Amino acid sequence: MPFGIPLEIASLLPPPAWPSDAFATRRPPIEYSSKQTEFLSPPTEYELHDVTDNSLTESLNLNESLVPPSEFEYPLKDVADILETAPHPPPTQYPWDHATPPQSSEHSSCPRTDDGLPPLTPCIKPLAKLNKTMINELVPRKHHKESYLLVRTVTPQYTTLTDALTVIAEDEKRDVLMVQLYHQEEGSAAEEDVKKGTVLMIKEPYLRVSPRRMEVSIEHPCEVIFLAGNDERIPEQWRRESAEQSEVDTVLAWCTKASDHMIREEYRSAIACYNRALCCSASTEMSYLLWTARADAFLKAERFDDAVADVDKCPPTSRGLLRKAQALYNLRRYRECMYVLGAQNLLEDPNRHIEDDQVAQDLLNRATRCFVKEGTLGKYEFRQLQEEAAELKPPQLDHGTYVGPVEIRESKISGRGLFVTKAVKAGDLLLCEKAFQCGTYNKQPEAGRERVSDILDMTIRKLHRNPSLIPHITKLYHGSYEAVQLPEKVDGVPVVDTFLMAEIIALNVLSCPNPSTKKAQEQTEAEPRSQAWGWGLWEWGSYVNHSCNGNVKRSFIGDMLIVRATRHLDPNTELTWPYIPRGSHTTAWVQDKLFATWGFKCKCTICEDDQRDPCVTTDRMRLVALLGSRIESLTTKNQVIDEVDWCVARLADTYQRPAGEVPRLQTFEAICTGVERLEQLEFMPGDDDFGLKEIKLRLEALEALGYVIDFASRVDKNSMVPKFVVREWGLWYRGVIQHWEFFRVFYHALGQKFAEEYVRKVYRMVYGEDETIDELL
Ligand SMILES: C[S@@+](CC[C@H](N)C(=O)[O-])C[C@H]1O[C@@H](n2cnc3c(N)ncnc32)[C@H](O)[C@@H]1O
C-alpha cells in the first residue's frame, strides 16, 4: 500500500495490490522499483486489520472517490472525524503517584517508538548537510538519516489524543502524508496554530507504522523547521501561492503586524513579524528598536534566553534592561536580576518610562526575597506559602530555592547522592526547592492551557524555549539510556532529546500531595484525586537515593519541595528517603516494586534483616496478627497491655541487631495495634496509673524505630507522670505522628508544655513547617 496519501483513507480501500496506483493523489501514479516494493510492503497484520473494517468507509462516504480529482482539500472536520475514529495509542504514563506505582523504566523509556526501534537520537546535522528526500521515497520504520523532507500543510493542525499536533502535508510532487508533531508549542490563540499552507522542513524523518496508520512522527521538536513566507528555501511555486507574497515587505508593515499580534497575545506570530522586520531593517538604530521590541515578545512567549540575548545586542536602555531583568527572574537567576535592576540604576535613569518604576521596584523586591531571604538564609513565610498553595490551582508558587548544608557527592549506595556537609539536628531544614517543572493529574481546561499538558511535554517545551536550562536536567539520572553529547543549538534551534527527557522524568519525578492546611484540604476535598495534585521534577531532590531506613522526610507546599532531617545527622551522612511507602507490605513486595520501577534492589538494614531469613519476617507478621485477634475480646486496659508486652517480648527474640541499626517495624506495628484497642476501652478500677503505662508503651513504640528516649531518669517531682527527653530520633514511619499527638494532648492536660516543642518538630517534618500548627492540629 502506498503512503503518499493519509493512511486512514488509504486503509479503507479494498485489499491492495502492492504497489498500486489506486490511491493516486493529484500527481500521476509513481512507478515503484522492485527494491522499493520490497521495503514498502506493509506488515501482514496491517493489511488484515485494514481491509476488514468498512464502517469508516461508509460513515465517511469515502469509498467512491477518495480524493477530489482537481482540488485536494481536507476540511478540518473530516480530519477530525478520521482521527477520532482511528485507534490511538493510549497516552503514555511516565510519572506516577507513589500510591499507584509507575511503569518500569524500560517501559517508559521509549514512549512512542513502539515498533521495536531504539529511541531515535535528535538530528544534530545542520540542514545544509542533509539531502532532500520526497514522500514517495520514505521507507516505513526507517530513520532517514542525512535526509530532510520539505512539505507544505494542506490542513490546519489538529490535536489528537496523543497530544501531537497533526497535519496533512504535501511535497512538491503533491504526494501527501500525515505528519505528527510531538511536544510542539501550543498556540495561546488559534492564530498561532499551524495553519494550512505552512511550509515545514522535517529533518531525518521517521515513517512510523501502526496498525491503522502511517505517518511521519516528529518526536524531537528540533527536527522541524517552520519556514517564514519569504524564506528562500520555499519553492517558487509555493511562494507565489502564499498570501503573504502580496504584502509590502517593509519594516513598518511588519512592525504594524507584530504590534497587532502582540495586542492579540499571539506572541509567536509577533516574533515572526519582528524577524521579518529585522530582515528589512537598514539601520543599526532601527535594529536596536526592533530587538528591544522583540525582547518583549520573547518575554511574553517565555523564551527568556532569547529576550536576554536581544537586550544584550542593544545599548542599555531602561526599558530593555527591565525586560532583561524580568527574563532573568523567570530563569531564576535572581542575583543577576537584582544586579541589572539595582547596579545599573534603572530606577534613576532620567529617560526611563515612569510607568515602569513600580514594575521594576516590585521585581527587585521579589528577586531580593528569593535570593537573599529565602535562597541564602532559608527564611520562608511558611504561613503565606500555605495560603498561596491553597489559593492557586495548580499550586505553583513564586519563591526562591534554599539549598541548606548539603552537596552532591559520589554515593556508596548508587551513583551520586545528596550529603550533609555538617552536623544537623532532627527537624532541621535541608532543602526548600522550587520545582523545575510540574504537571497536574487532572486536566482542568477551565484553568488555562498551562495546566493541561503533561510534565514531559511541559519540560521539553520549557527547555526548547530556554536551552540554557537544558544542562540542569540532562545531568539528572537517566538509567541505562545512552545519552549522546548534543550541541545546544543546530540551525539556530535548541536540541532537546525527547527520549532522554522521558527517561529522566520517569526516574526522577515525585508526586506532590495536596496542600496540607485544613483550609486547603477543605478546598481540595471535592476533587477526585485528593491525595496528590500532580507531579514534579526537582533538581536537588532528584539526587536523594532510596532507603527504607531513611533519615530525611520530604513534604510539599504547593510545588515547593521541603526536605528536613528526621534524625540527628553527622557530617558527611548521605540523605535517603523511601521511594515507596512500605506500609504493611512485605520486604519482597517493596523489592519488587523498586526493581520494576527504578531497576534496583534495596540493601538497607531493614531489607537485609528481613531477607536474612524470610520465615522470621512471616513469623513476626503472624505474631502481630495473633496479637490483634487476642486483644479483640479483652475488656480491661491492663489485660491489653499484658498481651502487648507478651508479643513485644516474643518479637524481641527475633531481632539480632539493636533497633538503632534495624528498626523493628513489626514491634512498632504490634504496639500500635495494642494502643488502638486501648483507645476503645473505658477506664476500669485498677487502671489508676494507666496514663503512665500508656506513655511508656508509646515511648516503647518509638524506641522500636530507633529512638533513644530518656524517661525514668527524669522524674518531674511536681507531676505524677515524668517528662521524657529524646536523645536520638528514629526512623520516620507511618503512625509515628499519632503517638506525638497523644503526648501533646496528654501532657498539655497535665499543664506541661515540654512535649509541644517535640510536636512542633514532628510537624515540621511532616508538613515542612510549624507556623500553621494550630490550624493543623
Ligand atoms: C532519583 S535517582 C537518585 C540519584 C542517582 N543515584 C544519581 O546518581 O543521580 C534514582 C536512581 O538512583 C538509583 N538508586 C537510588 N536508590 C538506590 C538504592 N538504594 N540502591 C541502588 N540504587 C539506587 C537507582 O538507579 C534509581 O533509579
TrEMBL record:
Top-level taxon in the UniProt lineage: Eukaryota
Region called Disordered, residue ranges: 83-116
Gene3D superfamilies reported for this sequence: SET domain, Tetratricopeptide repeat domain
SUPFAM superfamilies referenced in this protein's UniProt entry, alphabetically: SET domain, TPR-like
Domain SET: 404-580
Residue ranges, compositional bias (Polar residues): 101-111
Protein name in UniProt: SET domain-containing protein
Taxonomic classification: Eukaryota, Fungi, Dikarya, Ascomycota, Pezizomycotina
